[in-house]
Each structure stands twice: as structure tokens, then as C-alpha cells.
Amino acid sequence: MCRNITTLRGLEPPATDEEIQAAALQFVRKVTGVSKVSDATREPVEQATDEIAQIVARLLEDLPARRQPPPTVPPLRREDVRARIAARQAARDEHERMHELGIAHTH
To answer: HEC states along 47-61?
Structure first.
């Protein structure tokens, strides 16, 4: 579960849709206590995340510019985090491929 929600206002370049969506999901997970999305929670979590992402995008557009940039770099802009995300996705893809091919494996 998230510890801190990343500050997106004042980033250069401005926050991307991916960063806004990640922050919205982080917020939804924090306030609901849902650390892993299941089939039972997927639809309401995704809907809330999309709605909050839209609200945040509008808010960031409407607020005046910051005088100073945020003190920390958002996780999605850090190379080590992007590498971990890519490795995790590659492992998921490989796991799905094994299922599709009927190859025995562990979970």
C-alpha cells in the first residue's frame, strides 16, 4: 500500500496521463484499503480511479503555476522504478504465455 501520494503540480514537463492515473489509483487504494485489485473490486476501483484522474487533470490545469518544483521526482520518472515495472510486466506476460501454452509452472 502506498505511503505517500506524489505531488504532480509544478512538474517540468507537466504530469503525464500515466502519472495522473497512477496517483489516482494510489489514492483509491489508500482510502479503500484495497491493496490488490480482485475480480470483486476491479470494476469499482477502476471506475473511481478514472473519475479521480479526470478530476486531478482538470485541477492541475486550473491551478496557477507553482513558484518552485516539487521537492521529489515522481516514481514513474525514476529509471529504477521504470525498470522494476518493466520487469514485473515481463514476468506477468511470461506467466500468461505459460498458461496459454499449457506449460507446467508454479504460482
So the answer is: HHHHHHHHHHHHHHH
pLDDT of residue 3: 61
Per-residue pLDDT tens digits for 10-35: 888 888 999 999 999 999 999 999 98
Q: Is the pLDDT of residue 68 over 90?
A: no
How far apart are alpha carbons 73 and 10 in whole angstroms?
Answer: 11
Asked if 31 and 5 touch (Cβ cutoff 8 Å), the reply is no
Domain boundaries, the chain: 1-72, 73-107
Q: Give me the pLDDT at residue 49, please.
A: 97
User: Are the C-beta atoms of 46 and 21 separated by less than 8 Å?
Assistant: no
